[in-house]
Amino acid sequence: MGLLDSLHALIAGYPFLTLIIGFITLGWSADRFVNASAAAAKNLGVSKIVIGLTAIAVGTSAPEIMVGIQSSLSDLGEIAIGNAIGSNIANMGLVLGITALVRPLPFTDTTLKHEMPWLIGATLLTLVCLFNLYLGVVDGLVLLGGLGAILYLLGRKNRATPADLDAELAELPDMTTQKSLAWFIVGLTVLLASAHVLVHAAEVVAVTFGVSELVVGLTIVAVGTSLPELSVTVAAARQGHPELAIGNVVGSNILNILAVLAIPALLDPQPIGVHVLWRDYGMMFALTALLVLLAFGIGSRKVITRFEGVVLLAAWIGYTFILYHQG
After folding, report:
1. 135 pairs with which residues across the strands?
2. DSSP assignments along 290-305, one per residue
3. How far apart are CA 150 and CA 39, in angstroms?
4. CA 54 → CA 30, 46, 59, 208, distances in Å?
């Protein structure tokens, strides 16, 4: 029995244990991979704008992207679709809901001026792609085109406010080129292995409990890949920086829609059920609309209060209950 066969036997025997291990190593390796990539690029003279757009902006969604690639290549595209949409639902309902209970979350001027309009545009673009109940190559290219447009706008914004970009780059660890390349290889290797373990463990869980791979992607996998956002936002709120929470979640959601959802569209094109459009995308759209109302509504305080956090969390819990009730 080869190494891969032994790994699959372990996954089949202990799916929940391997899921937990997969989530832990996925988060750990993604962090190392992103930091090493940015450090290596900085040492090799890559411009700050490029580093900011790739290693920092796109790199924060590395777990979702890697899970999307692995599941799509394994003919498990429903897990990838569920992960992309479910992560956004979890980010708004679970992550913002719990974090708002710790401390009310204000919308920053940058989030209101730039990130919220981009999220609205990305959410509506997703509706256009899903409306014909087929997620295909053209849709993937459209989503990537939207991502390219936002990265261009983000690049212009960073050129206009270089101090913000310098602050982000200053948080990266200093590494020699040799050390950064070594960590890049280690991080990428563990990231690939973790995604493989996670996807196949999720498939076993779906078969064992008789639920669809889509539901597992929408719930277990989505929550697992959203745990880094939860830990970061709660930590920021507890340390007196609640203003960072909404921006982190909105940025992550934009990338989940435009980058992560594009992966199954390009690698594993497939028809989608009408429930994906009305139930799952509908829930994502409703929570996004609620965020827009809290941000721009007449008389809005531009803050997610503790009560509103309870509403967000209750919406996520109710949605998850409906998913498992329907199977």
Report:
1. 270
2. HHHHHHHSTT--SEE-
3. 24
4. 13, 11, 6, 38
What is the distance between the alpha carbons of residues 251 and 260, in angstroms, rounded to a whole number?
13
Cα(69)–Cα(48) distance, rounded to whole angstroms? 27
Low-confidence ranges of the chain (pLDDT < 70): 1-5, 7-8, 47-60, 157-172, 327
CA 133 and chain centroid, separation = 22
pLDDT in tens, 179-194: 888 988 998 888 888 8
What does the alpha-carbon distance between residue 185 and residue 191 come to, in Å, rounded to a whole number?
10
- Cα–Cα distance for residue pair 325/323, rounded to 1 Å: 5
CA distance 164 to 229: 20
**229 within 8 A of 248, measured Cβ to Cβ:** yes
Longest dimension (CA), the chain: 65
Supply the pLDDT for residue 9.
75
Q: For 153, how many CA atoms within 13 A lie in the half-sphere containing its CB?
A: 13
Residue 34, CA distances (Å) to 26, 84, 215, 273, 283 in order: 12, 20, 29, 35, 31
Q: Which 3 state secondary structure label does DSSP give 271? A: strand
pTM over 0.85: yes
Residue 302, Ramachandran bin (φ over 0: left; ψ between -120 and 50: alpha; else beta): left
What would the pLDDT profile of 212-266 be if each residue is shown by its tens digit? 999 999 999 998 888 877 887 887 788 777 877 888 888 889 999 999 999 999 9
